[in-house]
Amino acid sequence: MAITVHLLSPHLSVDAGESVASEVRLGNDGPDDVQCKLSVTGAARPFSWVAPDTVVVPANGEAVARVGFHLPRASVPAAGSFAFEVVATPGGAVAGVVELCPFSLLSATLSDDDGGHHRLTLGNRGNAPMPTTLAAEVDGDGVEVRIDPASVVVTPGENAGAEVEVTERKGAAPTASTSTFRIVAQPQVGQPARVSGTYHHRAPARGTGANRRTPLIAGAVAAAVALIAAIVVFASRGDSTKSSAPGEALAGGKAPLEACPAKGHTDTYGVRSLAANEVANLPKDYTFLRVKADGCSPTRFNPCEPIHYIQNSAAAPPFVVDNVRESFRRLAAATGMTFVDDGFTDETTRAGPYVPDRYPGRWAPILILWDHFPPEQTSGRSQVFGNTGIMREGDVTVSGRLRFNVDAYNDELSHEPLQAGFGPPSGSGTGAIGRNNLQWGRIILHELGHVMGLGHSSDFGSLMYPDAVMQTSRPADLQRPDLEGLRYLGMEAGCLTTPKLPG
Q: Per the CATH hierarchy, to which homologous superfamily does domain 3-100 belong?
């Protein structure tokens, strides 16, 4: 008896974020039926699937299965070739290669004016170094724009720059006017990124005859790919390319609270996994999960009363209970609210916010559960790390539930469990933290943000970015978008009336 394995398409190619598959044929030249278990090994294994994974190959016959691969649209893994083998047990194996095509996600920003000179900064959230040409577009004939160099290579997770000089065109009319220009960054693969600016011409001062036109950039706005433009929204006034730093105060102190903070800041998708096109449609900074009928005010806890929480830690990994306490401490510092640790419970379910047999005379504390999730939520790169339930009475949040997957792991090969902590440490790199640097503190802070009322953000630096492995903050901490959103959910936004208990 001999089982043979044949791969119909041994050389596969796939775009990031897409899937590709090939037929696998198993032959049996023996006199008996043989049941074979199919698996995938090699560099492409973490992105693979086999269907069905067990087949019966009839005597002197053949059976057919399919092997497929789904490669994420992310900086990791990098574009290139991934070898694999389809192994039949008992039987043999057949080798193949899946090629991940390169893609780019560019952002572009211009620094503030410095005597007509500006710094163009490009970022790349794609999966390959991307040769990019730079060109200027000018509305009208009032200015000339020079870019040096005219082309750059942008490495994923890094920045590349060029100098931009804006000057008045010789012979332009000496009258007060405004010229608009754009810098267009066209990558070798993918869509261009654009950043716009305006140049204000000034007429000569009367009686002097002198031409006192002063170049001035105003309102440079990155109009890059929506997924990544948000990384510069909260830049400091003196450096428009600066990204959020852990624990850094808001630039220039706190601005007055907006009268309608939810306008343009609502997460309509809710607390769930998001597809790439949905992430692209998120607002660029903080968002709220639910807004009152006025369309302006987010629903939230009454920040002027203590908020209690309690943990069922029977299945908790070591030290994560302390990570929960530390996360609440950071949330208290950001909101001015008081959070009270009620200790531990054996409670495993929560039907609603009022549980009088356990917590008489008050709304139930926020329940934090450490639990074993179903197998389909604890395998592959799309495993679920945690989820959140928010419990409201009218327009006021009164309790919640957080549930974490104790079986969550990092490395696809070793299945090393997630560790406690808020890493990776500062100075450990740039760009996305990646799968193997994910720790429980980051997940806990993210889910607590949801309980407070924060939605997802498209800023990679935010703790509320939907995909934790693509976040860039080192270490894990509340960042500028998170802190700005929490201002409208905490003490600074004022007291509410806590709803009365049922009955």
A: Immunoglobulins (2.60.40.10)
